[in-house]
Amino acid sequence: MKIPLGWLKEHVDVTVEPQRLGDDLTAAGIALDGLERDGREVILDFDITTNRVDCMNVRGLAREVAVLYGLPLRPLQLDFAETGPPAAEALAVEVQAADLGPRFTARVLDARAGESPQWLKDRLEQVGVRPISALVDLSNYVMMEMGQPTHAFDLEQIRGRKLVVRWARAGEQLVTLDGQKRELDGRMGVVACPEGALALAGVMGGQSSEVSEKTRAVALEAAWWEPLAIRRTARRLGMHSEASHRFERGCDFEAPPVATARIAHLLTALGLGTVRPGLIDVIARRRDRPGILLRSARVPALLGAEVPGAEVERPLRGLGFGVARVTGGGLGDVYKRQAEGRAARAPHAHRRRPRRGHQLRLRSGQRAEPRARGRGPAPGQPALRGAERAAQLAGGAGAAAQPADQPAPGPARGTPPTAGWWPA
User: Fold this and answer.
1) SS3 214
2) How far apart (Å, rounded) are the C-alpha atoms in residues 212 and 225?
């Protein structure tokens, strides 16, 4: 993914040289593929792995940079004025399929589909997105900035002034924005009006409600879609879009209202239109933020280096996690995600091991070589037979003595740890 350095600096005041920035992020697990220049702008090209959907945008990378260098992350500008009749008088939303899209938000904008300012066009081209028109460009800009796709419908083309989230009907057809007629089945999601489908949910909009030069009012939507449903639809139809690329990996449930507010701010700040009062926000089913149990003994076991408790907490808070100590019996530490607009990682992300031979850079500037993956002993630790190893993990009487300079192994699966990071 290409990230303009100037855009990154609007979110975090990083001053290191571009190559040093790329090297430091590579050491942190976000590999820099290359550097290029576009006039006076430096473009950093990163290889974002599929489990890091939270970093598939400028702000996600800025958050990583802020934590890496101990810098503050600037808040998004979301202020805007509202004018005209309430949005709810012009548009209704109904979610009939909560298992497809449990959250659907919308705003009503009064705007014309004119051209975007040159700086916005340049930014989109630098990240590989073709400028189209002001309304579409703002939608794409915010997607690349904060990772939440949105879609603009021509309000006049929504029959009955109602958007419905539902599963497609067998044999239903839709002409998508690429001009292709798609035949749908009951396992594909759509955004529809009472007369038929208007868009493939989370994948691509339809031609019948496309924003054009005649557009005067827009229904701007941002939603959270079930990743498996989007992946299934995209693969079955042989389609791939920037939106589906993100939705099928899991976006942030709290991001849709923020994304629509960001577009509204830019629209009014650039003098491209106005925003009607009110946010339409339908939550058919809430998604609780999961708690993650971090066992202190597992940190040195995975990283191959001791990390002080405070140094564990600092990056987690900076990345948007809430931190709380589990009370009662010293069961460890639970870290719950906050609603700052950070996209959710894949469920296995927190268990990912470092690559073999990959060096980890600590805050102090020291480097530590992680232990090789596998079941072998750590350096300086005697090899144990199966029964002896099982006894050691279980903490039984037959456990072998642990060298003083080696961290104690973590507890067996399902066994609570004996101590957290902070002293009692």
Assistant:
1) coil
2) 26
Contact status, residue 76 vs residue 19, Cβ threshold 8 Å: no
Amino acid present at 67? V
CB 110 within 8 A of CB 216: yes
Report pLDDT digits (tens) over 252-288.
999 999 999 999 999 999 999 999 999 999 999 998 8
**Nearest 5°: CA angle at 52, between 48 and 58?**
65
The pLDDT tens digits for 86-123 are 999 999 999 999 999 999 999 999 998 789 999 999 99
Record the tokens describing residue 368, joined without a space: 């530590």
HSE-up of 356 (CA within 13 Å, CB side)? 3
Output the six-digit token pair for 331.
């069961």
- Half-sphere CA count of 388, side-chain side, radius 13 A: 8
Element (DSSP H or E) covering residue 266: helix 255-269
Q: Which amino acid is at 291?
A: G
The pair of three-digit structure tokens given for residue 420, joined into one six-digit string: 């957290």
Q: How far is CA 421 from CA 166, 301, 354, in A?
A: 47, 14, 21
